[in-house]
Specification:
The protein is mostly helical and about 150 residues long. It is about 60% helix and about 0% strand.
Length: about 150
């Protein structure tokens, strides 16, 4: 027969504590129900049965609270030898923004990127952040220029 595993024994002790059963009553119950003096001596099925019995006495299994997944690290807080790559979301946003800008030349974005970042491609999270903010600025300036030309406020 399969013996109880470590997780079951831990769960039995947590359940016993949460329902407020003292050690003497716990030992008497183990002896009376299963003929055992310790939860380590229970079979897998007996341990399962005991956990289910504790549930009838009010014990509730609560999932572990997991910490939220870590956000992308901020570039300023990383060691000098660590580089965070640009995320897919950032690269997608850049594509959307560059399509909205009215470029004067067919390779306007590439020219602007070369002048603005001194590079031909975006690799890091920091570069992506700069490009996104730069493209937003270009769009704002184009909107202002349109309003000035049409006389809108």
């Amino acid at each position: 027969m399969k013996t109880s595993d470590r997780k079951q024994i831990q769960l039995i002790h947590v359940a016993r504590t949460r329902i407020g059963m003292n050690d003497d009553d716990y030992r008497l119950m183990l002896q009376g129900r299963y003929g055992k003096g310790s939860s380590k001596d229970l079979t897998y099925g007996q341990a399962h049965d005991l956990i289910e019995f504790f549930k009838t006495l009010g014990f509730k299994l609560e999932p572990k609270r997991r910490e939220r997944t870590a956000k992308r690290p901020v570039a300023g807080k990383l060691p000098g030898n660590v580089v965070v790559l640009a995320s897919h979301e950032q690269l997608n946003l850049i594509e959307i923004l560059k399509e909205r800008v009215a470029w004067r030349f067919s390779d306007g974005y590439e020219r602007w990127l070369s002048k603005f970042l001194k590079t031909s491609s975006i690799r890091t999270e920091s570069e992506a952040r700069k490009v996104i903010e730069g493209l937003k600025g270009l769009l704002r300036n184009q909107e202002k220029a349109k309003k000035n030309i049409t006389g809108e406020n």
